[in-house]
Amino acid sequence: MDMLDAGGTEETVLEVNNIEVIYNHVILVLKGVSLSVPKGGITALLGGNGAGKTTTLKAISNLLHSERGEVTKGSITYRGKSTQGRDPADMVKAGVIQVMEGRHCFEHLTVEENLLTGAYTRGSSTADINRDLEMVYTYFPRLKERRRSQAGYTSGGEQQMVAIGRALMSRPETILLDEPSMGLAPQLVEQIFGIVKSLNENEGYTFLLAEQNTNVALRFAHYGYILESGRVVMDGPAAELRENPDVKEFYLGMSDEGRKSFRDVRSYRRRKRWLS
Amino acid sequence: MPEQLVFAMEVFLNGLMAGVLYALVALGFVLIYKASGIFNFAQGVMALFAAMTLVGIQNGQIPFAPLINATLGTNAHFFGWNLPSAISLPLTVGVMILLAWAVQRFVFRHLVGQEPIILFMATIGLAYFLEGVADLMWGSEIKKLDFCLTAETCLPQGINLAIDEATYNWFGYGFFIDNLDITAAIVAVLLVGALVAFSQYTKHGRAMRAVADDHQAALSVGISLDFIWVLVWSVAGFVALVAGIMWGAKSGVQFSLSLIALKALPVLMLGGFTSIPGAIVGGLIIGVGEKLFEFAIGPMVGGATENWFAYVLALLFLVFRPQGLFGEKIIERV
To answer: What is the predicted ipTM?
Structure first.
């Protein structure tokens, strides 16, 4: 499989280089994560609970700082410029916005007001913003119906749409999407991922997607990284990862040989490719 | 119409006017609490500080005069000019914005993500600090607040006479309502209107409400918490200034002014800590309630019920409706 299939152009917009993240000065969460995100692609960041997916995204968007986290080693560059020491607002202006895990809508604001907060950093005219609002409504027609309801009273799926739509309102280039499938019915997950896919194809947004749902993520993404305890243990084009026997067994829950013993798990751990 | 009833109506109206003043103080609390989750114990002192600053600037007082004189061995207290409101008001607003910035920069920026009780303690510290600064800056004597230097041109003199006359013609009994109370009511209505318009229809107002809902999410869309909090403290400082002017004009600018914060507490319990309309309605209910209670029940129990009525009412609310009349129900979804 060649790189062309792995997300349009080969231009890399986001480069994470061997970063280490420490929370509260003591808790080491990322132990050297490297990845690169090509422009116009959907890159998936996979792994279980506590693998470091969210931390990686927050390190990129610089939301880490407000949680007393710190990048202590390595570097992150967006379009060749270091992201170190820039605040989240700066990153949003540069075109990188994070959609946080668990939606995080502004509960007491209406759906439309939620979307409008996304345009906070923009100095655009009202007409411009209204045009983008219409764009969001074409991708999420459900939000248009519910535009006047308080976001806190909408369903989980609608809140996820609000969160993504809000990010779109900042006119981003790259969207860091954290666990969009969390707590949603399978049908809704498909729908959300379908919209992400069409946003990627029609509008050219670049996605870096953190997901526990490996199955869905690998079907929609172009390229994938698998994280385990703060390290990248495997990466490759999504189609290849889907066929990889270890991924199949440990992440997709498919096995040809029935039950396995713990010894085989250990051999899997030895086989993993350690990047750091 | 029976005399008693008409008199009760007058008491009711006076209560409404007093309630407006309570509401003004409560409003400052609500603004900060909503946006940052901080219960600002210093709100009353901010009103005092604002009023003292306004009077000080108007009278051409030299700030920190005792301190300067002690170090330089001089004996100067006044610049020797009187500034009109048109200059002294904007200057005072400027001072309050500076104060908001300093509070955020030197206190609350370092306490981001701390427990609410720690933030609350910080505001207590701030209250005493600010009281000391106010003392040092402007001195501790009671000052008269001439809102416009020539009060006759500024306060709508004659409105109370007009009301007196009109009601005398209707009921055969003239109502007496203080000019200052009428002014306060008008100012309060304008202020609330402006606040609501700001928070509902402007970009920064929306951002303010967004921050109140979810700090992390606000950060993620590029809203600067630092900026919003300075904004909120500035707005609260402005509201404190308005409250300080009204109370100061009523009872003189003195240190007991900071105690009006205590009167705002029952208002908040009634109206709910998170609701701007709640602060208004709560203030009005307390104002009317304590006046009517004093009028109807007071004589039976020997009077002076105004001192405790509001607190007893607040206690009842705490027992039966802890979120207050307009407090936000907590939206919880899984």
So the answer is: 0.86
